[in-house]
Structures are given as C-alpha cells and as structure tokens.
C-alpha cells in the first residue's frame, strides 16, 4: 500500500523542493504541482508532490497517520479522531444518490 504524506516546503525551484516532515528532509519532484513557496504543504507520494494541501487538510492527514501508528502500537488513538467521535458517518455526495449500474 502506498500512502501520501503531507510535507512542508523548505525551499525549492521550478522542478523540485526540499520538504520536511517530522524532522526528516527529502527532495521531492514538484513537476505536477509547480513551484511552491516555503511553508506550502504538499501531499507527497514516492518523492513526488501530487497536490497542494491547505493547513486543515494537512493536519487531518497527519492526525490520521499518527492515529494509525498509535493503534498499531497499542497506544491510545481516539483523541486523534475527535472530529469523528459521537457523529454518524456520512457518505460522500456522489454515493448518496442511487445511480443505475452499468451493464
């Protein structure tokens, strides 16, 4: 399984950026997202930035990844999913309407 990681741009040029996540720095390709300013948050798959993230989305992904790590290590993780506790799950809009099955 391949996971995208939110990383913060430290410095970059037209083709790549030096990015950081939890103290680890790596150079990633920015060919899909263009040049990004220092401080920008990027979703990175296999050393390629695939999307620019806003701060809220980057934080939600970080919490989810931290929660998965905590759960796999047997540590408490519920606090990392506080926005999901005590609410009913919601389907995305495209799944709420019935659509005919293609034959």
The CATH class is identified as Mainly Beta
Uncertain residue ranges: none
Tell me the number of strands. Answer: 5
Order of helices and strands: EEEEEHH
State the strand order across the main sheet. Answer: 3-2-1-4-5
Sheet with the most strands?
A: 5 strands, antiparallel
Q: What portion of residues is helical? A: 10-25%
CATH architecture grouping: Roll
What is the CA-atom radius of gyration, in angstroms? 17 Å
Describe the structure.
By secondary structure, the chain is an alpha+beta fold. The protein has a single domain, classed as SH3 type barrels (Roll). Helices cover 21% and strands 30% of the residues. The chain has helices at residues 55-72, 93-96, and strands at 5-12, 16-21, 24-29, 41-45, 48-53. It has a 5-stranded antiparallel β-sheet with strand order 3-2-1-4-5, with helices on one face. A hairpin with a 3-residue loop joins β1 (5-12) and β2 (16-21). The mean pLDDT is 91. One of its GO terms (biological process) is protein maturation. One of its GO terms (molecular function) is carbon dioxide binding. It comes from uncultured Pleomorphomonas sp.
């Amino acid at each position: 399984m391949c996971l995208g990681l939110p990383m913060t741009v430290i410095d970059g040029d037209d083709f790549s950026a030096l990015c950081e996540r939890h103290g680890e720095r790596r150079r990633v390709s920015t060919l899909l997202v263009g040049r990004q300013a220092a401080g920008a948050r990027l979703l990175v798959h296999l050393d390629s930035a695939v999307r620019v993230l806003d701060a809220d989305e980057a934080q939600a992904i970080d919490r989810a990844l931290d929660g998965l790590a905590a759960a796999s290590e047997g540590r408490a993780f519920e606090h990392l999913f506080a926005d999901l506790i005590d609410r009913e799950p919601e389907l995305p809009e495209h799944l709420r309407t019935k659509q005919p099955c293609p034959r």
